[in-house]
Amino acid sequence: MIRFFEKRGRRTPMTVRIIIDRKVKKGKESDFSKLLRELRTKAIPSKGYISGETLRALDDPYNYIVITTWQSLDDWKAWEKHPERKKIQAKIEKIMARPTKTKIYVHA
Q: Which one of 5, 9, 50, 66 has the largest count of C-beta atoms within 10 Å of its C-beta?
């Protein structure tokens, strides 16, 4: 279901921000960086992709947050289910210290 907001009398699809929290096993940072680049390269041309950034916690260098913005929830869900994403995500999960956590946000 696409959510909309009103702006100057026009209905506009609501963008969504996806926050992905990952903790990498020690010694696997290089593998993780390579997989993240591969994932982003595949995501960029996907329908609805707007932007993405990766942050690393100052107090825990193995904890990463990816913030990605999509034009709609439907666009994100389509990418989340995409076979290429699932394949790369499976590789990422093998080098995680804990399961990946994903949350979906909209502007309040």
A: 66
State the Cα torsion 87-103-16-22 to the nearest 10°: -50
Q: In this structure, what DSSP letter does residue 14 have?
A: P
pTM, whole model, 2 decimals?
0.86
Digit-coded pLDDT (tens) for 20-75? 999 999 999 999 999 999 999 999 999 999 999 999 999 999 999 999 999 999 99
- Asked whether the beta carbons of 4 and 71 are under 8 A apart, the reply is no
Rounded distance between C-alpha atoms, residue 63 and residue 72, angstroms:
27
Q: Taking the CB of residue 9, how many other CB atoms lie within 10 A of it?
A: 5
CATH 3.30.70.100 fits 24-105, yes or no: yes
Domain spans of the chain, in order of start = 24-105
Q: Give per-residue pLDDT as tens, 83-101.
A: 999 999 999 999 999 999 9
